[in-house]
Design goal:
- This protein folds into 2 domains: 162 residues, Nuclear Transport Factor 2, Chain: A; 95 residues, Immunoglobulins (Immunoglobulin-like, Sandwich), CATH 2.60.40.
- Helix content is 19%, strand content 38%.
- The protein contains 5 helices and 15 strands.
């Protein structure tokens, strides 16, 4: 439960400004828009997100459409460290637009600070020749983990707002960091090695730590990196230099992940030497 709460806190930091889908054509980009229209929108976007960097949300409210001000007033507003406009898509008549902005923020888990860049999609519409941020009711919402859809109300009507399944969102985050295997095999009688690759599919960095449940002389487990940035893959290498040719019992390695508080268990097995004597069948054993 604690791990889920951590993930939900991380998810909540950007969910407030995840927007509903719109009729904007993704094929009409900034390059196709009239230069003065695109420049005016970019200035309004900068004003809106700079207010979130400075913590001056009254300035952000100046570019919020009147029909969306109640929503903006009530919603939790994240404080960003910086932002960068990634892309803008326009409607065919250039009166509406979707802006994708990479917002960098900081979150603290168990006393550790982490930076994360989150892509936030916002909607804009032209009112009296000025651009305004707005939100409208819909039955689906776009998030970094895909499109989430709310079910109908009990009376069969469509819900006025979209509330995603937070637990499902947390599970989506947890599944973004996974090893490519959970078992490796080493030789009990000759030098050998094996690798496990751990990909970070999250939008921010994670910290890895590995340990083995029991000491075995000659066995090592090494990560090529302990801090894994978004989109990167860490390699966990197991190496064994046997001190003798005897059979070895299976061991377990544990890889912990922060801030998701995940724990991956990697089973380590050892192949027996081919010339190792095997126990005689019971049928040929002498009678006592």
């Amino acid at each position: 439960m604690y791990r889920i709460l951590i993930i939900l806190c991380w998810f909540a930091s950007f969910f407030a400004f995840s927007q509903t889908s719109s009729a904007v054509d993704p094929k009409i980009t900034s390059e196709q828009a009239p230069p003065e229209t695109d420049a005016a929108l970019r200035e309004r976007i900068k004003q809106f997100y700079q207010a979130h960097v400075d913590g001056k949300f009254r300035l952000a409210n100046q570019v919020v459409a009147e029909d969306s001000q109640d929503f903006f007033f009530a919603v939790s507003k994240p404080r960003y460290l910086s932002f960068e406009i990634v892309r803008i898509n326009y409607s065919p008549d250039f009166t509406r637009a979707d802006a994708v902005v990479a917002c960098r923020h900081e979150f603290v888990v168990e006393g550790h600070k982490f930076d994360s860049k989150v892509p936030v999609t916002s909607h804009w519409k032209l009112i009296n020749w000025e651009w305004f941020w707005y939100v409208e009711p819909a039955s689906e919402i776009k998030t970094p983990f895909g499109v989430m859809r709310a079910g109908p109300n009990k009376d069969g009507s469509e819900p006025p707002t979209v509330i995603p399944d937070a637990r499902a969102a947390a599970q989506a985050i947890l599944s973004a960091v996974q090893p490519d295997k959970t078992e490796v095999q080493l030789s009990a009688s000759a030098p050998s090695s094996a690798e496990v690759h751990i990909k970070n599919g999250m939008l921010g960095p994670v910290q890895l730590h590995v340990d083995i449940d029991a000491a075995l002389p000659g066995l090592s487990a090494t990560l090529d990196r302990t801090q894994v940035k978004a989109g990167e893959t860490a390699t966990l290498k197991f190496a064994y230099e046997p001190k003798n040719r005897s059979a070895k019992a299976p061991l377990t390695a544990r890889v912990s992940v922060q801030p998701t508080d995940q724990l991956f268990v990697i089973k380590i097995t050892f192949t027996s030497p081919p010339d190792m004597p095997k126990p005689a069948p019971k049928s040929v054993l002498p009678n006592p």
